[in-house]
Amino acid sequence: MGWQMFSLTNFSTLKQSLGNSLAIHKGEEICMYSSMCHKIIFSYKGLIDFCKTIGFKNIKVKGAGYHPLPAFVGNLDKRHCHFITIKAIK
C-alpha cells in the first residue's frame, strides 16, 4: 500500500508513527532523542508525511524503477516503484 512499516515509523522527533495511518501512536507529539529515531528507508506515504511534518509545501512526487519494466513505469505507480524523488518548497 506504500505505507511505512510498523517497525520503521519512528523517524521524526516531532510526531510519532509517520507514514502509517494504522500505527498506534499516529500523530502524537513526543519527546525523544534523535538517536532514538530510525535511520530510514522511507515508504511512499512515510516520505510525504515526513515532508509535511517538517513544514514542506507543494510536494510533488516522481517515481522510477519497476523491474523488469522500463524505469518510467515507476512514475505510474509511485507507491511500488524502486526509487522515489520528492520536490517540495519550505
Question: What's the arrangement of secondary structure elements?
Answer:
Blueprint: H1 44-53, E1 57-64, E2 83-89
Antiparallel strand pairs: 1-2
Fold and architecture overview:
The protein has one domain. The protein is globular, with a radius of gyration of 14 Å. It has a two-stranded antiparallel ribbon with strand order 1-2. It has 90 residues and is an alpha+beta fold. Helix content is 11%, strand content 17%. The model has no long low-confidence stretch (mean pLDDT 79).
Summarize the structure.
By secondary structure, the protein is α+β, with helices and mostly antiparallel strands. It has one helix and two strands, in the order H-E-E.
Shape: globular
Mean pLDDT: 79
Low-confidence stretches: none
The SSE order reads HEE
Beta fraction: 15-25%
Work out the helicity level: 10-25%
Q: Name the strands of the widest sheet in spatial order.
A: 1-2
List the keywords.
17% strand, two-stranded antiparallel sheet, 90 residues, alpha+beta
